[in-house]
Amino acid sequence: MNSFGKNFRVQILGQSHGEYVGIVIDGCPPGIRLTVDDFKNDIERRKPGAKGTTPRKEDDIPEIISGVFNDTSTGAPITILFKNSNTRSGDYEKQRAVPRPGHADFVAHKKFKGFEDYRGGGHFSGRLTVALVAAGVVAKKVVGTFPGDNKIEIDSTILEIGGEKDLEKGLQKAIDAKDSIGGIVECKVSNLPIGLGEPFFDSVESLISHAVFSIPAVKGIEFGAGFAAAKMFGSEHNDSLINANGTTATNNAGGIVGGITNGNELIFRIVVKPTSSTPKIQETLNVETGNVEPFSVKGRHDLCIALRVPVVLEAVTAMVLADLIN
Amino acid sequence: MNSFGKNFRVQILGQSHGEYVGIVIDGCPPGIRLTVDDFKNDIERRKPGAKGTTPRKEDDIPEIISGVFNDTSTGAPITILFKNSNTRSGDYEKQRAVPRPGHADFVAHKKFKGFEDYRGGGHFSGRLTVALVAAGVVAKKVVGTFPGDNKIEIDSTILEIGGEKDLEKGLQKAIDAKDSIGGIVECKVSNLPIGLGEPFFDSVESLISHAVFSIPAVKGIEFGAGFAAAKMFGSEHNDSLINANGTTATNNAGGIVGGITNGNELIFRIVVKPTSSTPKIQETLNVETGNVEPFSVKGRHDLCIALRVPVVLEAVTAMVLADLIN
Amino acid sequence: MNSFGKNFRVQILGQSHGEYVGIVIDGCPPGIRLTVDDFKNDIERRKPGAKGTTPRKEDDIPEIISGVFNDTSTGAPITILFKNSNTRSGDYEKQRAVPRPGHADFVAHKKFKGFEDYRGGGHFSGRLTVALVAAGVVAKKVVGTFPGDNKIEIDSTILEIGGEKDLEKGLQKAIDAKDSIGGIVECKVSNLPIGLGEPFFDSVESLISHAVFSIPAVKGIEFGAGFAAAKMFGSEHNDSLINANGTTATNNAGGIVGGITNGNELIFRIVVKPTSSTPKIQETLNVETGNVEPFSVKGRHDLCIALRVPVVLEAVTAMVLADLIN
Amino acid sequence: MNSFGKNFRVQILGQSHGEYVGIVIDGCPPGIRLTVDDFKNDIERRKPGAKGTTPRKEDDIPEIISGVFNDTSTGAPITILFKNSNTRSGDYEKQRAVPRPGHADFVAHKKFKGFEDYRGGGHFSGRLTVALVAAGVVAKKVVGTFPGDNKIEIDSTILEIGGEKDLEKGLQKAIDAKDSIGGIVECKVSNLPIGLGEPFFDSVESLISHAVFSIPAVKGIEFGAGFAAAKMFGSEHNDSLINANGTTATNNAGGIVGGITNGNELIFRIVVKPTSSTPKIQETLNVETGNVEPFSVKGRHDLCIALRVPVVLEAVTAMVLADLIN
């Protein structure tokens, strides 16, 4: 099902080439200021246009059609829609016979028995992440109202593109190879209270990873020292407690012990696979002819989808935290 | 909350030094054969005793107190308990002032306002994984009844200890260093149907990672090529479809595309941090004195908890699949 | 939270004087034919205009903005919106000081800390039942696809108005008294399979009553013989099984035994209180002045809201059944 | 599924003739005092022995096997078991061919495909209400800690037996008729805060009725004026607000408006059907012979199960309130 959360619950909706994509947010407390302007910055960050992203123009103006009155949340479900412009779908019918490599075309066809909206990825499209970003804007506001000494801050950045810390260099690799490329994105949350999460099943790691794997193209997640812990000794990995606030000398745990926030910085990284749509010629099955045929992607696409992920990662992280704090 | 699943739902219960640990399984279909013997093999696999694991004896005989009649599931909730023997808790009170590094002692104390059962890790203890294993035995049986050409099989193995593929060598590192050590465990599932999972929020990756991070000491997960995808080009990572059954030439996606199983082998890896209880002298805060003091672990503990994880990993994976298939 | 269901899940949204009211339906199977025309009949049945209902004109044309492609459900969330026309809200601000008797104005103000959309009942408005009706149309189609010897049919009718079986006579009572009036509505479902529902917590009675009390103005529900059972002997109330299909000689259980459908007609009745907005002068508190003052309702309202309930009752019943069958 | 609640969640388990019945309570806050003695009074109230109830002896001593430490809740799941004594099940096999009228025997057999535990009603047995009562004891304690001017109090009483307000007279009817008999039970909750519940789907009426229909034999529920509202005018039914605390002059709404508590007494009534096991000779199908045959109940049974319901009704009401307040 396409919903997430218990006390701050989101329901995503829409397809790439439908009339709208959008999200319903249930459980947002009343009294949160919300105007269209509040969404501008994060929506801008998700937009294509930078080097390595698609130059396709998207005018993403949120339409808040419920739950907000006098620019303030009412406590009723908040619905935010984004109109899909630019949804020519002329030749999708023809392309159906050739499931795009790396895309969900084939599994969608099987799962939904041939009734899926196959235009532009349909409900599987990265287009829907604009709805996640919108929910994230609301969630960040909710999280920001949490009483504490300092404001909870969520910040996500790109760590690597194609194995390079220099992002320009990583992108250039892809441009030179006329191919798409993967990357790693990190997220940090500061000023969290101690005690969020549950020991079994609803650990903070469980909830964050659950949400994060809803971002298309994410294939892995690690907290704190992460996979490096496999090579570490216990005496290296253990974070020594140094004061009664719970501060630790190191942060290999990434701010979570026993599934529970420990008051140190929450830190985790995700891997974003290379964009499935690559300029390179590939092979795939033509399900009509039964032959494996050469395949090339039409149109302009992101070379590196990781570039657009940070703001989406912040958004789903904020959603989880809003749910835990609410 | 300490429950997981929608149609095959488990509720875990118990503390390390309480009378029992156990699990309630709701949604198990009627007519599944279940005897105490069915649990033996998996419980044996979880037991300590091998090199690198604690020699502490645990007699884990499941008591099935509901939901099974004439050695067959009835459709009503199945409750399985394990009696905790060997629960001397004499000197835990004294140790409370000194939260163990890497353990949940400090966060548990804060989250539960000092009322937590602090003996032996309480509800956070690795002891509770015996209950997960029991649920996994039932889940495997449910998954095994799924109609298909071949039986769904779940298999988990240790890939690395301390960075070594030779597990003996990895363990010896720890023994030589008089320290505990981490590892990597892999899980593979074959013969899955196409179409399990949902595009948003309930992707197979989301559900598996949610469940997997309930296993104590897991700090990361990756599917298919995983973190290596960050360095890959799209043309390398994309798995070409080669026939109408959905078979792909490679399996970088790990059997999941768009969050949905694609009929290829489901494959993922997790990192298990080094056991928090290490023989090495460490430092931690004495919350009574306010001083950071040297700290040493009493008793015998696993040097490498990863060694006991494979059967637990299979168990939570089976739980997720039973939930999806049910 | 404003959602309901596990496998066929609805999320309601909107306020009386917002831009739209609507519903998101998650879990609708793919391949269900759905056009705007399919909604016409049930939406028409809910409309005002008959004797005893408000003459206010509502043009309720469903806008299906997601989840349907080529007039067929895709398996992705279906979103249906209804534009609110006629939403002059000029003088609501002034009326805020005087919570209307029988309405949610006072509790909404308290619960939502003064941020509620107070225009025309806001999110509490009976206006939102048009969204329930729309979900019901989809649910009826889902239920109608259930394989069985006969098609499941849901039918709801008014039993009494103001204590009279002759509905004209009951309404005339209200017209004569220049007051609003209550009524009783019955719902019957035929051709249900045996075995829907769960013994504890998710009995069919539990789920139906949960859904039914979401219809504004409902204050009671009874199944089969219902409250009359309080005066009956066991030998009278027990329904004797007369054949192997589960047919019973009588149907005092209303088709549910032990919380489970028994294959006989599901039958239940609800009481609908008189419309809170009555033409009669009443008294209520002016929260600004602190005085209890005379109060009269402006505008035209339904004298008997029960008249518009049958199609809404069918809708929520269909939602529950779609969830159980799905 | 056999669980209920979101933030205070219960999972019921066990069968009449299994080893134990019991309940797991997840979400109980830490720091609640809980000893075996705390359960005595409510368990005593549920016990048979009074006139009209079965003289069968049940020694119901709760075994708290998890979640309580030093007589105090820890915040981890609380598990409470009751050993089933007196579970001779010798001749149940023979009785299987003859589904008892009014009981769940037939539907259980169909739903669970013949694998149900058919001894003494199995998982459908009224025996499981002892587990509800235990959860109610915990829930009442949680509700009792809600900060407010006055302590929230839940009180349930029998209103009628067999149509008589004089309960002795009602029972005598049944004794004279050598038959079982139904009744009406009322529940009142005082000192509730304003604002519990949600406008759609999770109204207080929705949640309470959901829980209440888990009590075996309940066939109807009404809030405030209830079914009498069908005959009332709006001006009669509307409760006038008389002060800023939300006090109303009358309480026809039963303390709930728009699905939300309004601070007045919560009041509702349920109908309890006559005990299905009546001393009278009845008829039912013999599924082996295919004939409808005379049937008589063996053993001693409650003449009027309503007599034992009040404490169970308080329990499930407390569970709902604990969930809403938690």
Task: Describe this protein with a few key phrases.
homotetramer, 326 residues, alpha+beta, Chorismate synthase, AroC fold, 8 helices, 15 strands, globular
Strand content of chain A: 15-25%
- The fourth-level CATH homologous superfamily of chain A is Chorismate synthase AroC
How many structural domains can be distinguished in the coordinates of chain A?
1
Which CATH top level class of chain A fits?
Alpha Beta
Summarize the main sheet of chain A: 5 strands, antiparallel
CATH architecture annotation of chain A: 4-Layer Sandwich
> Count of helical segments of chain A?
8
Please identify the oligomeric state. homotetramer
Question: Percentage of helical residues of chain A?
Answer: 10-25%
Strand tally of chain A = 15
Largest interface: A-B, 101 and 101 residues
Q: Kindly report the average pLDDT value of chain A.
A: 94
Uncertain stretches of chain A: none
The secondary structure category of chain A is: alpha+beta
The outline of chain A comes out as globular
Layout of strands and helices, then pairs:
4 copies of one chain form a homotetramer.
Chain A lengths: L2 E2 L4 E6 L5 E7 L9 H11 L16 E4 L1 E2 L2 E2 L4 E6 L8 H4 L9 H7 L17 H16 L8 E9 L5 H11 L5 E8 L13 H9 L5 E6 L10 H4 L18 E2 L2 E2 L4 E7 L9 E5 L4 E5 L14 H16 L1
Antiparallel strand pairs in A: 1-2, 2-3, 3-7, 4-7, 5-6, 8-9, 9-13, 10-13, 11-12, 14-15
